[in-house]
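Table 4 source record.
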Amino acid sequence: MLNKKIFLVFFFAFFIRLIAINQSLWLDEAVTANVIRNYGFMQIISKFSPTDFHPPLYYLFIKLWTNVFGYSEIALRMPSVLFSLLTGYVVYMIGGIWTSAFFLFNPLIVYYSQEARMYMMATFFLTAALYYFLKNRNLILFNLFIFLSLLTFYGSIFLITGFLLYFLYKKQYKNLFICLLVVFVYFLTISSLLYQQLVNSKIALSNVANWSLVLGKANIKNLLLIPIKFSIGRISFYPKWAYWGIAGIWTTFISFTILIQKLKGKSQNYNLKVKSLLFLLISPLIMGFIASFFAPMLQYFRFIYLIPIMALLLGFGLSNQSRFNRRGYVLVGGFLFFSLAYLLLPQFHREDWKSLVKSLPKDKPVYMITASSDPVKYYNNKLIIIPLRSDFIGTTEKQEEIIVIPYASEIYGLNYKNLLSKNGYQKKKEVSFREITYEQWTK
């Protein structure tokens, strides 16, 4: 009977991940697609990675994957679907069926299970490491998954530091030394690439006026958004008082359910596990908050590898007693409600570049920030794209009508409207799609 329940949970989890999986790629996903389509394996490491802000393992893996399955939206996103299911299975092995359900139907996990980026891959590696950490077995596999997570996502270091601090506190010096050695070898291996990326990120922060706002500054709002998004996912709606009210009540219920685990006073082993997991849940957030004063990175999606820990804490204490099961059904039902709201309501989907590119006039060049043009190139690589920058007016002199995609112009601090108006252009029309627009300007 238990096996049948597990099968049903995973079947339904896989099924809902197929809903709207072919929605438009957004900017970062299109970057992934264009990189693996235009670069070879060695070029990804030598040419692309120095200009990126992530380690190369995910790109190398997805390059291998797409060589077999192609470059469609579904093909690009399927690895994240599979990594999320694998993570759910590891969570099941640690905590049982309730914890796997809390993870698999978590709305933020469902969202990033459909994203062609490295976050679900890193979450799988770190959850696998967590499995060997909690079971206190196979130090080799624990450190292998630690190493792989660092090769996938730099943000993994916060949870890894949590492991290291735990080893230090428990005086497990052998584990501490070996894990430190693995981290040292990793940074030694990737030091040249990491140095180039740090230099380029400094240049980007200085050249792009509002870039730090996008990355996630250390402030209370960004910190509070983490538990809220962990609870309700990426959806947002108006009126805002209703959004904050619903989000606040549900997040409070989730937080209370987690915190009362510490107060149940069961066996010593139970209390030790709860304290360990609470420490591993909270300490990476504290470290990430402090680090963001120096290098902005405090965005909730960079910490989704903590959601398996949250699921484990929610699952502790659930048993066959009906009153505890009711709590489990309420939690799963709430997560499913927010997940299905995202999946079934298109207004919560990603930027609709697919529709925008399809509607662009075919005989006119497009002016836009070049660094944000990957979605246009993915959906139509024959369109002529002209850089939208402070001196772009010189390229429009002989054109009576131009097309502008203003996406990211505010981040770059570019007042293109003022420049066009001063040179005799008037906005003829604005065509809007989900979260993006293009404009026609005429003289």
